[in-house]
Amino acid sequence: MTSLVRAMRLLQFGDSMLPVGSFAFSNGLESAVQQKVVRDLPTLREFIETALVQAASCDGIALLAAHRAACVGDAAGVIAADHAVLLRKLNEEMRTMTLRMGRKLGELVAHAAPHPLVTRWLADIEAGATPGTHPAGLGVVGAALGLREDDIFAAHQYGVAAMMASAALRLMRVSHLDGQALLHALGGTADRAYATAARASLDDMATFAPIADILASVHVNAHVRMFMN
Amino acid sequence: MDALIAAPELAPYQTEPTQMRSGAVGKNGFLKLGFERRGTRTVLADLRRRTPLIAQRALYYDAAMPDLPCVMIISTAGGLLQGDRSAVEIALADDCDAHVTTQSATKVQQMDANFAAQTQDIVLGERAYLEFLPEPTIPFRHARFASRTRIVLPASAALLYGEVVQAGRVHHAGGERFAFDVFSSSIAAQRPDGRRLFAEKLVVEPAVRGVGNVAVMGSYEVFANVLFLAPPEAVARVHGATPAEFDGAARCAAGASRLPHDAGLVYKVVGMDRETVQARVRTFWGRVRQAVRGCPVPPPFLWR
Binning pLDDT at 50, 70 and 90, where does residue A222 land? Predict the structure, then answer.
């Protein structure tokens, strides 16, 4: 596969418009805005920055593990990475989000770009052999599409930032231009995030964002909300 | 312990102390607390210890649960020092109840070499109930601390485990807030047959990533991570009684989430001061004990 085709694949499957349902989630931003934790551009940036750190230091490690396992046909390795993600989703809302998006991604790729790795992945989800989380699914899809691991890692990081930036447009006074400037600035941090995640093992998956965790539990019980949980 | 020592967040801190080497006699504390049922009572049937960790005997001071053994873990070392390696094992046989705490806050002393590491292994039998509520951890300037907790329990057992971590000695030398090098705490739980329930690893490295971020600690200085693992009815009752709160006036925020695989709840609290956070943990403890054993918790000790 030429680098041009690889770039096309990455643009398509890393696109924030990819219909895997990410538009329905705010990744905790909705309650952060309601509780005034996020109230302007600087606080929005901090909130998304932490989500990206979490994505890299937790889900991103499993994504790389799933990609590496799928590339060598190690189905058990893919399943182990998938379980590792679910075990660490301590909040119901985050579990719902990752399972729904993971499932949709698998179905979409199975239809648009059929590949034995993705067929097997969906069959394992159907059979209950694996939960089907989004990061593990993205790793499998990346392997099926012949994408490099750093490319698919970047797609995941971008997806998290784009989902939240797009939710911000609907939740607070932020312009499209500010949103794009934010995505551009945050995109520059991907190198360092990848370098750390690439060396880590599933046991190293770690987080620390108590306020974000508490906001997620506020959201589960919220009466009025635009985004799903 | 070997896997813990090899954790990536400890990699920058592998130099040996110029005092006693890491894990030397006096720096490798061990404590085994084995509880068994005798008649209506639970007794501390197996007590093994190695300095600087000590437990004396079980006391039965809880008026609402007179058969509940209460054990205080004591350290003679004046906190955790560089090169310390300690291991705590708590095992409850079937139908046992126990309450375990520590004598005072765990001070993680200032370090210029190595780190302190601790493992905790908790194993519960059928229908057992353990309350493990240590006093807060206070990591001093340049402290490096890693802890690894493993929990094995059947679906019929209940565990309340809570850790409270402070920013540092906030009134010392003009204020010491999040001046430690690394605080790492990993917790994982599984069923006796090996089925894993959940895992969480918290790594705080204030110099690498500021904790003042609005999604991390904001302006709060104390956090609590509390786990309640129990059968579904008790979990539902506690969850229903624990609404999330996010209230600037209350100087704290708190919320409970349902863990994966119906394991129970995680309850997180952040606050401006220890008293506020501990009060939330105590209220939660009261709901837990009511749901699990139908008993109230004792009033706070006046001198603690």
Answer: low
Burial classification of residue B167, based on how many CB atoms lie within 10 Å of its CB (0-12 exposed, 13-18 middle, 19 or more buried): buried
Of B214, B215, B255, the CB nearest to A217: B255
Contacts of residue B206, defined as CB under 8 A and 6 or more positions apart, other chains included, come to B178, B179, B180
Q: How confident is the model at residue A17 (pLDDT cuts 50, 70, 90)?
A: confident
Give me A51's structure tokens.
Answer: 């989500």
Q: Which of B211, B257, B260 sits opposite A86 (nearest CB)?
A: B260
Query: CA of B285 to nearest chain A CA: how many angstroms apart?
Result: 18
Determine the Cα–Cα distance for residues B272 and B219; give it in Å rounded to an integer.
7
Please answer whether residues B99 and B164 qualify as being in contact, where contact means their C-beta atoms are separated by less than 8 angstroms. Answer: no
Residues of A in contact with B254 (CB under 8 A): 214
The reply to whether residue B270 touches residue A211, judged by beta carbons under 8 angstroms, is: yes
d(CA A68, CA A117): 12
pLDDT of residue A221: 65
Cβ–Cβ under 8 Å, residues B128 and B94 = yes
A71: Cα separation from own chain's centroid:
20
CA distance B163 to B148: 12
Q: Do residues A87 and B196 make contact, with C-beta atoms less than 8 angstroms apart?
A: yes
CB atoms within 10 A of CB B45: 16
| List of residues 6+ apart from A65 with CB closer than 8 A | A77, A80, A81, A84, A139, A201, A202
Closest-CA residue to A130 (of A81, A63, A65) = A81
A200 contacts in chain B (CB < 8 Å): 8
Distance between CA B47 and CA B42 in Å, rounded? 14
- Closest residue, chain B, to A218 (C-alpha): B244
A92 contacts chain B (CB < 8 A): yes
The pLDDT of residue B88 is: 98
Chain B CB contacts of A49 under 8 Å are 213, 215
For residue B240, the SS3 value is helix
Which residues in chain A are contacts of B253 at CB distance < 8 A? 211, 214
SS3 letters across B199-229: EEEEEECCCCCCCCCCCCCCCCCEEEEEEEE
